[in-house]
Amino acid sequence: MQFATDRLVFGPDDVDLSRSPLAGQLGRETYVLGAFNPGLLRLASGNLLMMVRVAEALRVPIEDGHVHSIRWEAGRYKVDSWPLELCDTSDPRKFMVHGGSWRIMALTSLSWLLPVELSPDGLEIVAVHYDKAVDPGADFQCYGVEDARISRVGRRWLMTTCSVSPERHSTTLYSSANGLDWVFEGIVLDHQNKDMLIFEGLIDGRYWAQTRPLGDLYFAYPPGSKWRAGPSINLATSPDALHWKPHEAPGIRPHADTVATARIGGGTPPIRTDAGWLTLWHGVEPKEIVGIYRTYWSLLDLDDPSVVLRTDHRPLLEANPELTRPLEDKLYIRDVVFTTGITDGGDHYIVASGEADLACRITHVPKACFGD
Length: 372
Known about the structure:
Belongs to the glycosyl hydrolase 130 family. The chain has 1 helix and 27 strands. It is an all-beta fold and about 375 residues long.
């Protein structure tokens, strides 16, 4: 779909790396590979706040026959080196390290979260809060903190992130009373369970969340099933937002009749509407290395979110090459829109996405698109 208000509002050139948590520690030049995948909330002032994932990378990652990557250790940042002959560097976001019994990956960048304050409509930058940045603080975050998703439940903001390390690829939780100062609450989901989205409201006194466990093996659905085996959006419940129990009924599953959603995952935290919980999610169509990422939406039952009331198989958002044309020299992947935030804008929703793993995109989506 096309929307009247749809633009990039923040990108690599808007980040001041002299104020980065990594500044002055590596002895090497870095650059912003991407400033993208923003969590979104509305502050008490009425302004919006994006928690932007800043992927900071070495300007020259390959030299002297080695591939280099950044790692946090004991409060400092350092550079590791890997023999080039052991590495597959075909994906600009990561490299695979060969020679072991398992698939081993390292990242070409380290991510931290930067709070960017926007005008109430999300279209103008008001302030960039470097002093409130969220960066690694423990061994299980040594390769970065990624992809904030922010929900308002009661009087608290809850922000889930992916924390990356050799120990585990975990989901970590932060909380805030004002949406700007964040308190680390700990690990809430363990290895390779990504895209955790906490519902914006309790159901029967419990917290609910969407999750997306990953694996290398999935069992087949029977022949003729309308579902496709692979990653799906599951559900979990909690009494306190800290201790989560998987819900027994499945959530949103990929349909067998389209390759456009052959792999799926959560996008925005589900928000309550009169018609049901509105959730935006991503579907990935296989193509080359990365695939084509699009944004879709579903309505879930208000009392039982495992009941999908409606799913629109037409994409709500697709990558828009016109938006990134001024940044053509910085593009390293294409065909990717990754929606991560939503808030009410009156007769429309303000939707925040990462465009091409490069910049932050704000789209005003009329509520009429969802039948509101």
